[in-house]
């Protein structure tokens, strides 16, 4: 039985380069209540770019 508001929800990280590439991960809502921004590899443009949390 899952809770309605899970402490570690599944989120999508979308590339800011505009390629449409996404990563799927989990985050702890208590420790990081703000939207997540990470630098990760985008294979479509073969560069490291910022990925922002999408809800």
Q: What can be said about the biggest beta sheet?
A: 4 strands, antiparallel
Which quaternary structure do these chains form? single chain
CATH architecture: Single Sheet
As for the CATH topology, it is Rubrerythrin, domain 2
* SS field, number of helical segments: 0
The class by helix and strand makeup works out as mainly beta
Provide the residue-averaged pLDDT: 93
The CATH homologous superfamily corresponds to Ribosomal protein L33
Strand arrangement in the largest pleated sheet: 2-1-4-3
Shape: elongated
How much helix is in the residues?
under 10%
Radius of gyration (Å):
13 Å
In the CATH scheme, the class would be: Mainly Beta
Number of domains: 1
SSE string, helices as H and strands as E: EEEE
**Terminus-to-terminus distance:** 23 Å
Summarize the structure.
Belongs to the bacterial ribosomal protein bL33 family. The protein is an all-beta fold and 55 residues long.
Give your account of this protein's structure:
This protein has 55 residues and is an all-beta fold. Helices cover 0% and strands 45% of the residues. The protein has no helices and 4 strands. It has a 4-stranded antiparallel β-sheet, with no helix packed on it. β3 and β4 (47-54) form a beta hairpin. The radius of gyration is 13 Å and the shape is elongated.
